[in-house]
Write a structure and sequence with these properties.
The chain is 82% helix and 0% strand. The protein is an all-alpha fold. The chain has one domain: MFS general substrate transporter like domains (Growth Hormone, Chain: A, Up-down Bundle), CATH 1.20.1250.20. It is globular, with a radius of gyration of 21 Å.
């Protein structure tokens, strides 16, 4: 069998040919890839969580307006959209290692710019730093696809969920260290709210270095070589397009819509929660606790969610996402603002609903695409997911400034209801 694969290959390097010829080596690389991703995502999660916690508060302090509170999330999610395109293109040409490591390292540079901006009170540098910081977010999210490169059909949901759940440890620790990092920043003459970005910058850079050093051989390059070797037996030719019969365009669109709506609702409510809490006397440590629970809920259920998506189906879990986001919006809207427990409940539901939506949408896109176009499609739709987050962040500040946090949360709850008729329609069309 190995000899046959050698004959059909096109002058592959010897090290790469070994992975093409021997499935056991592919499996070893798959497991090594997951371990590397898990380690890097722990640090990536810390960088992500700390910045999200205080970004809105820092902008509000520097600009002196509540309207500005949504700008940081808008900027770093818009930055993550731009980075998703670059990471996707870089990964397609040079492999996941180059794309993901580069995104984390650039995100770390963005965090450093934010720290400098706060120290010298430069709004322009703050905005530039937040935009660049988004590259770390893009790498953190796109890592879920790297785990699926060498996974078989029964492993894909598990592989994607492992990359997500490993973010939890860092993402929970990060927000709960904002108070400590704020004190550290004070001790070195940096504004308190810039302190968490010190940790973000260091965490993103470490995550990037882990991937750059250990994510080799590159899983995407190996998977592509294997697919090219087997393309003669494929029903879809290399370079296939969305017009191929094995490409389910409706499935791709529905998967993207689920992820986009979940991201929009989650980002809008999450962005303004720290500001809302500040109005009612909650301190940085309490804000960090709430956001820590929220981010844990975003990522920690991932292995269970992956199993549920495979067991009960994409339609069922998409409806579960809409119902959970609806509950989150209603609890956030009507919970007493001075009740830390109710705020935690609202943000936990918000995180779980997002998790259901993201993994369901991811599974639909993988199901609906062929290997020849899958990576390109993944990168393209992650751009739309990031842009929806940017829109949610930008609009949330304006909505709260001109109405209230209650209205914002109710709006998110109402919007979540759209998921139910959309996925029901898709299930009927598919059948």
């Amino acid at each position: 069998m190995a000899k046959k694969l050698e004959n059909t290959s096109t002058h592959q390097p010897l090290w790469l040919q070994e992975y093409i010829d021997f499935p056991e080596k592919q499996n070893q690389l798959y497991k090594k890839t997951l371990k590397t991703l898990i380690l890097s995502q722990i640090f990536g999660g810390a960088g992500l969580g700390a910045g999200i916690t205080v970004g809105a508060l820092l902008a509000q302090e520097m600009l002196g307006s509540e309207n500005a509170a949504g700008i940081p999330v808008a900027l770093f999610t818009f930055g993550s959209a731009l980075a998703a395109l670059l990471i996707g293109a870089s990964s397609q040409r040079f492999g996941r290692r180059a794309g993901l490591a580069g995104g984390f390292l650039i995100g770390g540079l963005g965090a450093i710019c934010v720290i400098i901006a706060a120290a010298i009170n430069s709004i322009a540098l703050l905005f530039a730093g937040l935009l660049i910081y988004g590259a770390g977010m893009a790498s953190n999210l796109q890592a879920r696809y790297a785990g699926t490169d060498l996974a078989n059909e029964k492993q894909r949901a598990t592989a994607a969920s492992m990359a997500l759940v490993s973010t939890t440890l860092g993402a929970v620790v990060g927000p709960n260290l904002v108070n400590t990092m704020g004190k550290f920043a004070d001790s070195i003459g940096v504004p308190t709210l810039a302190g968490p970005f010190i940790m973000s910058g260091a965490a993103f850079i470490i995550a990037g270095l882990i991937l750059f050093i250990f994510l080799r051989p590159d899983p995407l390059l190996v998977a592509t070589a294997i697919a090219n070797t087997e393309k003669k037996d494929d029903k879809v030719p290399s370079g296939g397009s969305l017009k191929n019969p094995t490409i389910n365009k409706k499935g791709i669109v529905i998967g993207a819509v689920i992820m986009i709506l979940a991201q929009l609702i989650m980002t809008a409510i999450m962005t303004m929660t720290p500001v809302h809490m500040g109005h009612y006397g909650h301190g940085l440590s309490e804000v960090g606790l709430v956001i820590g629970f929220h981010i844990a809920a975003m990522y920690l259920p991932s292995p269970l969610t992956g199993l549920l998506v495979d067991k009960f189906g994409r339609t069922t879990m998409a409806i579960a996402s809409g119902a959970t986001l609806l509950a989150a919006g209603l609890v956030a809207a009507f919970a007493p603002a001075n009740s830390l427990l109710m705020l935690i409940l609202a943000l936990v539901l918000l995180g779980v609903g997002w998790n259901f939506g993201l993994l369901t949408g991811t599974a639909l896109i993988i199901d609906s695409t062929h290997q020849s176009v899958r990576a390109k499609t993944q990168g393209t739709f992650d751009v739309f997911v990031a842009l929806s987050g940017a829109a949610g962040g930008a609009l949330s500040g304006m909505v709260v400034a001109h109405s209230s946090y209650t209205i914002l949360s109710i709006s998110g709850a109402v919007l979540s209801l759209l998921l139910i008729p959309i996925v029901v329609w898709y299930s009927r069309v598919k059948s």
